[in-house]
């Protein structure tokens, strides 16, 4: 097994989880990779130092000597994590609140169903669907 999967197996075992499918650590590893790539991409976009400057413009001597590598600072990573946490990992509404909301909604009485409901048709003598048309 790869080192990351062994670590995930050890983490699950230390948390008391011993019965799980073999693909669970792979799924956790995939989730962690996607989350990390997303955070780094957001941090790279938020970092103010990664825009073109005069030293990195095409045709300058510095640009010909070494390619410009993007630099991600810790503040940009913190901001990227904060922006994701605000909308990605939000918990649902409390059960008590939803119960109270449902009770309040159910207090409203529904209108009674009338004795004659459905499509209103004229009397039988005016309908051409009866047996004795009388024409």
UniProtKB/TrEMBL annotation:
This is Transcription factor TAFII-31. One of its GO terms (molecular function) is RNA polymerase II general transcription initiation factor activity. PANTHER family: TAF9 RNA POLYMERASE II, TATA BOX-BINDING PROTEIN (TBP)-ASSOCIATED FACTOR, TATA-BOX BINDING PROTEIN ASSOCIATED FACTOR 9. It holds the Pfam family TFIID-31kDa. It comes from Pseudovirgaria hyperparasitica. CDD domains: HFD_TAF9 (cd07979). GO terms for biological process: RNA polymerase II preinitiation complex assembly. It comes from the Eukaryota. One of its GO terms (cellular component) is SAGA complex.
């Amino acid at each position: 097994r790869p080192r990351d999967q062994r670590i995930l197996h050890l983490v699950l075992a230390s948390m008391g989880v011993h019965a799980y499918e073999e693909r669970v650590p792979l799924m956790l590893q995939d989730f962690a990779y996607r989350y990390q790539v997303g955070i780094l991409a957001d941090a790279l976009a938020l970092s103010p130092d990664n825009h073109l400057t005069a030293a990195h413009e095409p045709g300058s001597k510095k640009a010909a000597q070494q390619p410009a590598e993007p630099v991600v600072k810790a503040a940009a990573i913190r901001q990227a994590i904060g922006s994701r946490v605000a909308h990605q990992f939000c918990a649902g509404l409390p059960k008590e609140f939803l119960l109270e909301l449902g009770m309040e909604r159910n207090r409203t009485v529904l209108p009674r169903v009338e004795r004659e409901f459905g499509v209103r048709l004229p009397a039988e003598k005016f309908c051409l669907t009866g047996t004795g048309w009388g024409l």
